[in-house]
Every structure is written in structure tokens, then in C-alpha cells.
Amino acid sequence: MKYLVESFMQLLGRAPTKPEKDDITPAAQEIHFYKRGQKLDMDEVRRLHDEKQGKNKWLKRRWATLLFVNLLFVVSYYFDIQLLEGALTASRFLGFHMADLNSALQVMLAFKTVLINLLIGTVTVFVLWFLVGGRSFCSWVCPYHLLSEWAEKIHLWLAQKKLVKDIPFHRAIRSVFYVIFALLAFATGYTVFEAISPTGIVSRAIIYGPSLALLWVLFLLLFEIFVSRRAWCRYVCPIGITYGVVGLLSPMRVTYVLEDCKHEGDCRKVCLVPHVLDVTIKGRATDTRVPVGADCTRCGMCVDVCPTNSLRYEFSWLEQLK
């Protein structure tokens, strides 16, 4: 229960809390005690990095999956094969209705009614993203996420040259925007968020061709390059909260294994939502195996970079059968 509460509060923007001694299992306390006197051996960490095979394995798989899903919309549209029709906000896959959960919520608030087809599509998508891990949608399917990821690389390069400086905001702003967009839909009868969501704009542009709305996307990307890295995903987009809640109890997750971790912190440097990896800080893990919080997008960058495989994908239902 404590994990669920902590994970949910982090989704809403609260900083991770440092566990009390009573929150930590005896097995984890023993490992923490053993590690307390250990100093980080960077030569060993570099050697482990060099030895690790399959660098960027999950990044390549994720990019390939994201491109495949979005191109499937294009192929279906241009060749009229009715395989995956529509766009990310609302689609039909092999005849099954699918509706983005946040879009469906916005529509129902705007029209103040529950539409049956929309409800069916919502259930389908809810089950899908519950199984594969909530915010996996963000990093494995959302086309704006990929553009933002590339923009972040430019931002980091400019920051390294001391040409830009990242301006962070409080993550709780995203929760405020979530309420604002919901209230706007209810009060105006118009899905305001959908009109400005770069996810929908980019998805429709890929399938049906570019529109002037792409200028808004360009503005967002420039803002993220020169002002605040990943500003839209971190501080504005309500989709992340919606899918994060779906993923609270998802069996697909990134799990942290305490014993072999060197605590060098490379995982937090590459993470898109680094607060979820506070558990890797020495003394923070409450057990020998800890699931990473629901705000994790399951992008796999921490799994790729971890030199000791202390971060790994797991499907909890399968782990329980072992």
C-alpha cells in the first residue's frame, strides 16, 4: 500500500520521500549496512560498462516499435487496408475500437455523456496499457515523445557547451494543468487539450499530411531546446498522469535489484523522469527488489545504461510463478 501511495503522489508532483528505518526490510537493511562503508570504484564501473553487451538495446527496440505503430496508421490509410484506422486519439485495430484514455475523458466531460463506442474503446485501451505498463504509451507509441527526445539531445549538447541553461519547474504544475484542461472541457463543451496536444497534432500530420498546427509543435520543441528540457511531457501533458494511474498496478515494470548496484547514478542521468529512480540512491531502497514508480515510462534507458543489470524489465505475474 505504501508503494501505491508513494507512487501516486509522485505522479501528482510530490518529491520522493526518504524511507524511515522501519519501512526497510531486514534483508535490505543488511545490504545497506554492508554497502555503507564501501567507496565507489569508478575504474570498476567503467570496466563493467565496457563489458556490457547490447548497448542501447532497448532504445533501438523502442524507437523501432514507435515508428512501426505510427507508420501502420499511414499504411492503413494510404492503401485502405483497414488494419489500423484513425489516429492515436481514436482508432480501430482489426475492427476493435480503441480510444486514447485522456481523449475519451475530455470528450465525455465536454459532451457530459458516456458514449458507448467510446467506452468500449476506452476499456480495450485500458486493458492493453494496464498489461504493458501505463506510461509505456508515452515512450513506446507517442510520436511527440520521440521528437522531444531528439530535442533533448540538442538541449544537452548546448548545455554542455554552456550555450543554454535548463530551467526546471515544479512537477506539480502538471497536475494543475490536468484539472484546468478537465474544467475547460466541462465548462466550454470543447476538448481544448486535444486542440493543442502535440501528440494528436503530430499523429494526424503523419497520417493525413502537415497542417499549420505543426507551428505550435515547432514552438514547443524550440522551448524545450532553449529553455526547459522536456517541458511539455514533464510539466503540462495530462496524458502522462492518466496512463501513470493505469500503470500503478501494472504487471509490466522496471524493477530495481539492490544487491549488485554500484550506486554510481548513471541511470538517473539518462532517465526522462529521474525522480522515479531515487530508489537507486544508497540507503533508499526499502527492499532487495523494488518496482520503479508509476511515473516511469518504461523507456529502458536506465536498463541499457546500468552496468550491473540492477535495473531490469519484469512481468510480475511471471516472476510470481518462478
Q: Would you kindly provide a written description of the structure presented here, covering whatever features stand out?
A:
This is Ferredoxin-type protein NapH. The mean pLDDT is 87. The strands form two sheets. A three-stranded antiparallel β-sheet has the order 1-2-3. Strands 5-4-6 form a three-stranded antiparallel β-sheet. The longest helix is centred in the first third of the chain and has 23 residues, at 57-79. A hairpin with a 2-residue loop joins β2 (90-93) and β3. 56% of the residues lie in helices and 8% in strands. The chain has helices at residues 2-12, 26-36, 42-51, 57-79, 101-111, 116-132, 136-140, 143-160, 173-188, 192-196, 198-208, 214-226, 231-235, 238-246, 266-270, 301-305, 316-321, and strands at 84-87, 90-93, 96-99, 252-257, 289-291, 311-315. The chain folds into two domains: 1-58 and 253-315, no CATH class; 82-245, no CATH class. By secondary structure, it is mainly alpha-helical.
